[in-house]
Amino acid sequence: MEILLAALIGLPVGWAISWCADRLIAASELPDRQHRWRAPLVLLATAILFAALAWRFGATLQLALTALYTAVFLFVLITDLEHRSIFTVVLFPAIVFAALASPFSQLGWKYSLLGGGIALTLTLGMYFFAQAYARARGLNIAGGAFGRGDVWLAVFMGIVVGFPAIFPAILYTILLGGIGAFGSLVYHRLTERRLTLTAVMPYGPFFCIAGWWLMVFP
């Protein structure tokens, strides 16, 4: 019963996620086919993920917290995948809330905030390295090789997965990013008959996937 109820709650939440994405990014910018299919897919995905959370945590405070964090992950995944944009207007309040709610999480505030601090340190290093590498090689990559939005997303992920899960979360993100980059190269090679080494690939979805998995199955 809890699983079914969570899935039903996930439907309007999924609609709200899609609606908010459209409000922050003009719907006219979206390809018609992509926009038409995105909303029902988000509804279905939210219902399934909320059902999985209910199965994992039962009717507990952890269910409410992880459901909220799941909604944030889904929103970021959508906007970054479609528009290469991670909106701090959503992410900053999410980080503050997750930090304030950390004493009520199963991790405890110490491990949660330590995870966020480690994520900030590691991804800041990645950010500055990517910027220096791009300048040294003279690469003009639109949006940057690794954006500041990715850093803040990593901080949010670090708080919700905590320590020591932040280390495998970062590792899985890098591995998924490598797979995604390889797939992007293959796609451009097949469709454009050339390798596009400077094509922009959103990194946010890989943070979201790894973060959600380690949040639910630490």
C-alpha termini separation = 25 Å
Strand content: under 5%
Category from helices, strands and their pairing: mainly alpha
Number of contiguous helices: 8
Helix content: over 70%
How confident is the prediction overall: mean pLDDT?
81
Summarize it:
This protein has 218 residues and is mainly α.
Secondary-structure map:
Blueprint: H1 2-24, H2 32-57, H3 61-83, H4 88-101, H5 109-137, H6 148-161, H7 166-192, H8 204-216
Helix pairs in contact: 1-2, 1-3, 2-3, 3-4, 3-8, 4-6, 5-6, 6-8, 7-8
Keywords:
8 helices; single chain; about 0% strand; globular; mainly alpha; about 220 residues
Describe the structure in your own words.
Helix content is 78%, strand content 0%. The protein is an all-alpha fold and 218 residues long. It has one domain (2-216). The two termini are 25 Å apart. 34% of the residues are buried. The mean pLDDT is 81.
